[in-house]
Design a protein that fits this description.
With about 325 residues, this protein is mostly beta strands. It is built from 5 helices and 20 strands. The strands form 5 sheets. It has a 6-stranded antiparallel β-barrel.
């Protein structure tokens, strides 16, 4: 059954009066302690959809501020899933008319954003080999590897200004689809301050590092800071079904909080913050029957034209290459 949140393809109704119910409507009576995380987990397969539900309810300014005896109604109108919150009212209070919000108005709500730790937000997925503003030659002093509060030597043809801040990026792996390289995975691993620059060689002090800096690491003077990344959650309809093509974190499979890659991107409507559901498809020899079993969910961190990189935020089994990825359903 295809489900699609109205926040992105239709109108959302917030009804403060009694709402007529259809036979297949799901009604949840809010109990003390309930949050939209709980409700999403119970009725929408995964709690990670609560930002979508929350963003669809302008009357709810905090996911913990829904009240006992409120009714949360999950209903289907055609191919749209409508989330309706019916507030508890005293019998003497007059019924209020529904308020209608367009997808554009809802999209402006900041509450549907979540924050990604720098542990994951510092990954960079590039279709090309990065060159940056220069590269690390070696540690300044004994040894080749350097870490926080130590100095490094950098070769740069573009020039680096003394006292300027730089970001150091390390290549992690090639990204492949059927053994063909389609991109490259990098990670911002350190911040440094340029102390001196002469004859294309800079000396810099490492002020922060998440791992040792090695010769060949790339230097950028215009990269976004190493900090948490705020993304707006969405679950758009996709133009086509995609597949898991590669991952980083596991050897032959992947699981929670691993980085994964799929063969769908911007050309298929996938953007930063998109939620993609992962399914394993099973066929039976000699039969037409095909079964799809839900295996997890990806939060897209970066999207290229025909592929994307995401964080596996939920899994109930090992995620393998070839598993399906689907947007709104």
């Amino acid at each position: 059954m295809k489900k699609t949140f109205c926040a992105f393809i239709g109108l959302f109704l917030l009804v403060c009066a009694y709402t007529p119910l259809m036979a297949d409507d799901t009604v949840h009576i809010v109990r003390k302690g309930d949050t939209l995380w709980d409700i999403s987990s119970q009725y929408l397969e995964t709690p990670w959809k609560w930002p979508l539900v929350w963003a669809n309810n302008e009357d709810i300014t905090n996911p913990h501020l829904i009240y006992p005896n409120d009714r949360v109604i999950i209903s289907k109108q055609g191919e749209k899933v409508i989330i309706t919150v019916v507030r508890t009212q005293e019998e003497t209070e007059p019924a209020q008319a529904p308020e209608t919000y367009t997808p554009e108005e809802i999209a402006q709500e900041e509450e549907k954003s979540i924050v990604i730790s720098p542990k994951f937000s510092t990954f960079i997925y590039s279709p090309n080999i990065l060159t940056g503003s220069g590269s690390v030659i070696k540690k300044h002093g004994l040894g080749d590897m350097a870490t926080r509060n130590e100095m490094i030597l950098i070769k740069s043809l573009s020039g680096l200004s003394p006292n300027s801040g730089i970001t150091i990026v390390s290549k992690v792996s090639d990204v492949k689809n059927d053994n063909k390289i389609i991109g490259y995975l990098y990670k911002a691993v350190a911040i440094a301050k340029v102390e001196d620059f002469t004859r294309n060689i800079a000396k810099a002090t490492i002020t922060y590092s998440s791992q040792e800096i090695k010769p060949g690491d790339i230097v950028f003077d215009d990269l976004r800071p190493i900090e948490p990344m705020t993304v707006k959650i969405s679950e758009p309809s996709m133009n086509n079904i995609g597949h898991i093509i590669d991952f980083y974190g596991g050897i032959s499979s992947s699981s929670d909080l691993d980085i994964s890659f799929a063969d769908v991107g911007r050309n298929s409507g996938i953007e930063e913050g998109t939620l993609l559901s992962i399914y394993e498809e099973t066929t039976i020899d000699g039969e037409d029957a095909v079964f799809r079993d839900y295996r997890g969910m990806i939060l897209v961190l970066q999207s290229l034209d025909t592929s994307c990189m995401g964080l596996i935020i939920e899994s109930n089994a090992q995620i393998r290459r070839g598993f399906l990825v689907i947007g709104a359903w």
